[in-house]
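Forwarding these from the shared drive since the link keeps breaking.
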Amino acid sequence: MAIALSNDDSRDKLHWEWQYLNLMRRIWEQGDERVDRTGVGTRSLFGAEIRFDLSDGLMPLLTTKRVYWKTATRELLWFMTGETNIRTLCAQGVEIWTDWPLDRYRRESGDPISRDEFSKRIVADKAFALQWGDLGPVYGKQWVDWPTYKPAGDGLYRQGPGINQIAQVVEGLKCNPGSRRHIIEGWNVAELDAMALPPCHKTYQFHVSGNRLSGLLYQRSCDLGLGFAFNMWSLALLIRMLAQQSGLEPGEAVWMGGDVHLYLNHAPLVEEQLTRTPHGDARLTIARLPSSMFDYRIEDFEVHGYAPQAHISAPVAV
C-alpha cells in the first residue's frame, strides 16, 4: 500500500539542498583521489552546477548543518571596501582569513603563536597588522580597484586610476540591462603570485530577464565541505543587493564549480552530514535601501525561519 506524503515531507524531498548532498555523496563515493596543494589530499570531480530560486526572499542556507551567515556577510561587505588586511575582519571576530597570514608569520618568525593570540595582536597593534596581516591584492582589491596602466613615455608605464567593477555592473544594470557584460572578475593573472590565495570564486556574471536579476558564479576550486556554504550565500546576497540597487527583483542564483572536492580529513563531516535530511526555508529581509552598493551594514540584513541542524566542525586546509 502506498503511503501518502505530508506536505512537509513533499517539500523536503524537493528541497534545493538535495543538489548539494547528492553532489557531496557523488564526490565522496566516486571522486578521483588526489594529492593537492595543501598536502591533505582530496576526492575531486570536475564540473558541477547547483541552482536556487531567490523568489519570495528565499536564501540558500544549508539546513543540514548551521551556516554562520553573518560571518559570510561580514566577509562580503569587507570585500566591497577593497581592503586586503585582516585587521578589520579580526576586529569583528571573523577569522576565516587568519590562517594564511598566521602560517606565514609562524614560518618566517619561528614564533609558535596561537591563532587567538595572533588575531588579538593584529587588532591591537597596527604596525604588526601592516607587516603581517595583509593578504595581497585579493578579491576586494580586484573588485573595486582593478589596476590600470598608461604609457608614460620611453616604453614605461605609470599606474592609472583603478576600475570599480561593482560600480560598473550597477551602472550597466540600470542603463543597459540586456548587456552580456555584467561581469565581476577576480582572476588578475598579473597579480596572482602576490595574493595569499588566488581567487577561488573568480567570475560573477549577471543577467536580466524581464524584471528579474539572476547571477552566476564560476568557482575554479571549491571546498564543498566548508567553503561552498559561504560561497553560495554570498552569491545570493550579492544578487539581492545588486537587484535592490538596480530596481530589479531577485531571480536565480546559479553556482558552477570547476574542481569540486572534499578533503580526506573531512570524513566525519561528510559522513554525518549525509545522514541528515534538509528541512525548512530561510528568508532574508533587507531593512533599508542604502545610497549605494558600498553603504550596506551588517545591521541591514535579517534572516527569518532558519532552523538548521547542529554545526559540524572540520579543519581548514591552508
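-- next protein --
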Amino acid sequence: MTSPTRIAVIGTGLMGTPIARNLAAAGHTVSAWNRTAAKLEALAAFDVTPLPSARAGADADIVIVMLSDGPVCDALLLGDEGLIAAMTPGSALVVMSSIPVASAEQQAAAASAHGVDYLDAPVSGGERGAIDGTLAIMAGGEATAFARLAAVFGCLGRPTHVGPAGCGQLAKLANQLIVANTIATVAEALLLAERGGADPARVREALLGGFADSRILQLHGQRMIERDFAPGGPAKWQHKDTRTALETATTLGLDLPVSQSADALFGDMLDHGDGELDHSGLIRELRRHNALPVT
C-alpha cells in the first residue's frame, strides 16, 4: 500500500485520538468519527477531518476501529447497513478494539466476503503508548494483509503478526491476564510492605532490576504509592477483558484460578464505584478487603 494513505479512524477516545494524530503526523490523510462529536474538535489542529458518520469513512483505503467492546463493534460493522458492506473491495479494515475472539472471526468472514482485508489488531501500552507511538500491536489475520499494513502500524508502535483472524484477540487476552494478575500482586506486595512497617516506595525501589521487576511495578507501582489513579487504563475495561478471557478459557476447557481471583477483585472494585479509575487503583480494593483506610 503506497503512502500517503487515506485512513479513517472510527472512535477517538483515550486511544483513538493519539492514534489519529500520529497517523496524520506521519503524512497520511486522516479522517475520524466519534459518537461524541466534541471529541473530534481537538484533532482539527492536526489536519484530521471530522466525519459526519462512521459510514462516511467507508471510502478510505484503511478503516481503523477503536471502540469500546465487541457488541459496539459488531453493531457498527456488520449487516447490510454496516460499515463493512459500505467499504470498497480491496481496502482494509483494522479492528484495534479488544473484542471476543468469536467476534473477530465473524467480522473477518464478513470482510472477506466483501473483498476487504481484515486484521484484528488490539494493542497494549495504554494512553501513554498511544501518545508516544510505542504500542505493542498484536495482529491476527492473513499474513499478506499484515505485510500490506506494516508501515502504517509502524507509525503507532511495534506490530507482531500472531496468526489468523482472532489470534490478535487471544494475544490481547493473554496480555490482559498478565496485566491484571500482576497489578493485583504488586498491590498486595506494597500493602504487605506498608503494613509491616517498611516504606513501600523504598521497597519498590529495591525490587527494580531484580526478578520481581516489571513495567507494572515500575509504572503502576509508582501510581499506587503516589495515589495517582487518573485513568490511563480504566478498571472497567480491565474487568471487561478479564471476563472475556475467562469466558474464552471456559470454552477451551481451562480453569484459571489466579485470573479468577484477580477478576473477582476488579469486579468488587467496580461495585464500589471505582470503575473509572486507573486499573492500578485496585490497591484501593485490597485496602477495603483488609479494613484499611482507602486513599
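The chain has two domains: 6-164, 170-289. The chain has a mean pLDDT of 95.

- D.
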